[in-house]
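JOB MANIFEST
job_type = single_chain_structure
chain_count = 1
residues = 113
[input]
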Amino acid sequence: QVQLVESGGGLVQPGGSLRLSCAASGFTFSRYALTWYRQAPGKEREWVATSDGRSTSYTDSVKDRLTISRDDAKNTVYLQMNSLKPEDTAWYYCYASIAGGLWGQGTQVTVSL
């Protein structure tokens, strides 16, 4: 079955850290770019970071705090989130650029005291 499954979300205090994981199955993971998006309450979904296997890119608001990485042997992409802020509160989604695009179900991150 072709799918992406995110995990690792939760409640964290400002300044804390979380690591999100996105496990892929059913396709040749190493061939595709993997991207993290997020959607905050009442806002549109926004791009966070992408790894194409050779390089990474980030939206400005998360540079130096969030790091995308991938383990092609484990078919998993990660998002290490440090120095979290309340404005990072959102549902985080993994996306693979296979034909037609593939989304995971999301994992919720809440940054609050």
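[summary]
The CA atoms of residues 32 and 97 lie 6 Å apart.
The first strand starts at residue 3 and ends at 7.
exit_status = 0
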